[in-house]
Amino acid sequence: DARKEGYDHYMLKEIHEQPHALERTLQGRLDAEAGTPTLDFPPGAFADAERVHLVGCGTSNYAAEYGATLLRRWGVEAQALLASEYTGAAPRVDGDTLVVAVTQSGETADTLSALRFAAERGARTLAVTNVVGSTAARECDDAMFIRAGPEIGVAASKTFSSQVASLVLLAATLVRDGEGAPGEEVRDTLRALADLPDQVATVLDGTTARSVAERYAGRESYFFIGRGLAYPVAMEGALKFKEISYEHAEGFPAGELKHGPLALVTEHTPVIAVFAGRHDEKTLNNVQEVQARGAPVIAVAGERADAVRRQADETLAVPDTHPNLAGLLANVQLQLVAYHVSKLLDRAIDKPRNLAKSVTVE
Ligand code: G6P
């Protein structure tokens, strides 16, 4: 089942599998009309969790960051922590802590170490993983499978989308079991989540990422910016870009640009700005700052973001959705830009040099 089916690369095939992967992720786990999660966890299952640590590496760390940001927005004390730093510098972890391991493979050594460290201290552990029977799934108290299907490309694509969708469902479940949740926003987000597979298909059908790639391939550096939930998406966009194109790319929180990275910005450094429909005016200010230094700006934004479209040099549009989910649609455009630039540069897209699908050493 792991053939390319007419696509030039597994990665492109897997990018195009996202609508179906997301359908599987959401299948039976959401009451779309009511806007409530229907995960297998009984009501109150997480009532004892006073704080949540989400640990992961690479792309999974950015999915974790997305989940943690959403949880904090919904009033849950949550942090995303790099698994490789967890054992050396973990914040308080004890029996009141839920530790969520975000790991596609379920075999990443750094993530397993973080899990074991947390379990020794009495934390409850939950694996969010793609692989049934993986070490993380077996060792954790609970497992939630993201159901993305096998991913052959070394650089993660569809698994990021399914991880984030899973974490949105998990976040809504944790809020259900906690106190003082902003109910209407959670319900609106979950109602919008049901439309996500179709909207990803719309992005894939209408994208102009290839022409953007043709215009900007071969520049000196690429900078990705975003704030709020668009920040982990910008980070993931930069990671994908450097992994498969071998070009220098960095992600920054949009507001931090002026505190240092701006010194690197010139007419040779395209800036890719991610807009999720919240804090957009502030990010637009940052766009103007880089344009004043001559940098071309490629915005990824919702269809109705007229001010963004007027200001940016190029816009990759995504269907309008809830601001809590817009980053997931933007990420698909970033995947495609990275893919097409890498293809123009004739890179080994499915097996980038020096990288492995699953890293089993610390
Ligand atoms: C490797 C892969 C990355 C992946 C990371 C975490 O570095 O190349 O694409 O994000 O491991 O993998 P995991 O299986 O734990 O999600």
Give your account of this protein's structure.
The active site is at residue 357. Its EC number is 2.6.1.16. It is an enzyme of class 2 (transferase). This protein is of the alpha/beta class. The chain is built from 14 helices and 12 strands. The chain has helices at residues 10-16, 18-26, 58-73, 83-89, 109-120, 135-139, 158-177, 183-193, 196-206, 209-216, 230-245, 280-292, 306-311, 326-344; strands at 30-31, 36-37, 51-56, 78-82, 97-103, 124-129, 142-145, 222-226, 249-253, 271-274, 297-302, 314-318. The strands form 3 sheets. It has a 5-stranded parallel β-sheet with strand order 4-3-5-6-7, with helices on both faces. A 5-stranded parallel β-sheet has the order 9-8-10-11-12. Helix 11 (230-245) links the parallel strand 8 and strand 9 (249-253). It is globular. The structure holds 6-O-phosphono-alpha-D-glucopyranose. Residues 57-60, 103-105, 108, 111, 154-156, 355-359 line the site of 6-O-phosphono-alpha-D-glucopyranose.
